[in-house]
């Protein structure tokens, strides 16, 4: 029967690994881990206290970024496109795509279709554009890159409210957007905003 021989270096490597495992990790790395752990727990406790203080009194503690030049400038209010919020997308007409109606004809037609708005508006503008809109109601019309004249009646004042019934009532102003088909002159859509 053949006897199995083991090499000495393998046995000593196993023994040194066993001795190392019994000693535990290096004391320097253990101390570093303890310092990092205490710092993280401390940061979490401070953050939790800050959240509680801000919940009770939001104006008491304010925190700002230490490098103000690195942050983008804050705008008081970002303008919101009312047509985009209504689901309307406008795009530029294709090169060489000309409308069959002139701007004056489109303004005249829109004024005939919406005489109240034309009479009471503070301003009117017209522009030739491509119009896309997906109607949400059943049976509503949908348009995709339809060439239109967009007529915008701005600052349309409503009739003065009855201040006897509501003393705090004030007159409001609205805008009307009329989409006139650039080839047929038909009103495709009119939106009050």
What features would you highlight for this structure?
about 190 residues, alpha+beta, 5 helices, about 35% helix
| Structural class computed from helices and strand pairing | alpha+beta
Per DSSP, the total helix count is: 5
Count the strands? 5
Average per-residue pLDDT, rounded, comes to 79
- What percent of the residues sit in helical stretches (DSSP H or I)? 25-40%
Strand order across the largest sheet: 1-2-3-4-5
How does the overall form come out from the CA principal axes? elongated
Strand content: 15-25%
Radius of gyration: 36 Å
Order of helices and strands: HHHEHHEEEE
Largest sheet: 5 strands, antiparallel
Low-confidence stretches: none
Distance between the termini: 100 Å
Number of domains as seen in the coordinates? 2
Structure at a glance:
With 193 residues, this protein is of the alpha+beta class. 35% of the residues lie in helices and 24% in strands. The protein has helices at 8-23, 27-56, 82-85, 103-113, 115-120, and strands at 88-91, 123-134, 142-157, 173-181, 187-192.
How would you explain this protein's 3D organization?
- With 193 residues, the protein is of the alpha+beta class.
- The chain folds into two domains: 29-63; 82-192, no CATH class.
- Helices cover 35% and strands 24% of the residues.
- The protein has five helices and five strands, in the order H-H-H-E-H-H-E-E-E-E.
- It has helices spanning 8-23, 27-56, 82-85, 103-113, 115-120; strands at residues 88-91, 123-134, 142-157, 173-181, 187-192.
- A five-stranded antiparallel beta sheet has the order 1-2-3-4-5.
- A hairpin with a 5-residue loop joins strand 4 and strand 5.
- The longest helix has 30 residues, at 27-56.
- The radius of gyration is 36 Å and the shape is elongated.
- The model has no long low-confidence stretch (mean pLDDT 79).
């Amino acid at each position: 029967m053949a006897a199995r021989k083991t090499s000495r270096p393998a046995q000593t490597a196993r023994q040194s690994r066993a001795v190392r495992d019994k000693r535990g990790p290096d004391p320097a790395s253990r101390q570093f881990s303890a310092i990092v752990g205490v710092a993280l727990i401390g940061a979490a406790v401070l953050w939790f206290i800050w959240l509680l203080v801000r919940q009770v009194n939001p104006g008491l503690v304010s925190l700002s970024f230490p490098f103000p030049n690195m942050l983008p400038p804050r705008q008081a209010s970002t303008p919101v496109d009312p047509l985009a919020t209504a689901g309307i997308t406008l795009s530029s007409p294709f090169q060489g795509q000309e409308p069959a109606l002139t701007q004056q004809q489109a303004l005249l037609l829109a004024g005939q279709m919406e005489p109240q708005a034309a009479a009471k508006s503070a301003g009117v503008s017209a522009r030739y554009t491509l119009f896309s809109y997906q109607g949400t109601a059943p049976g509503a019309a949908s348009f995709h890159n339809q060439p239109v004249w967009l007529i915008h009646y701005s600052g349309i004042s409503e009739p003065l409210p009855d201040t006897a019934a509501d003393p705090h009532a004030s007159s409001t102003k609205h805008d009307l957007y009329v989409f006139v088909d650039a080839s047929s002159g038909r009103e495709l859509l009119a939106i009050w905003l």
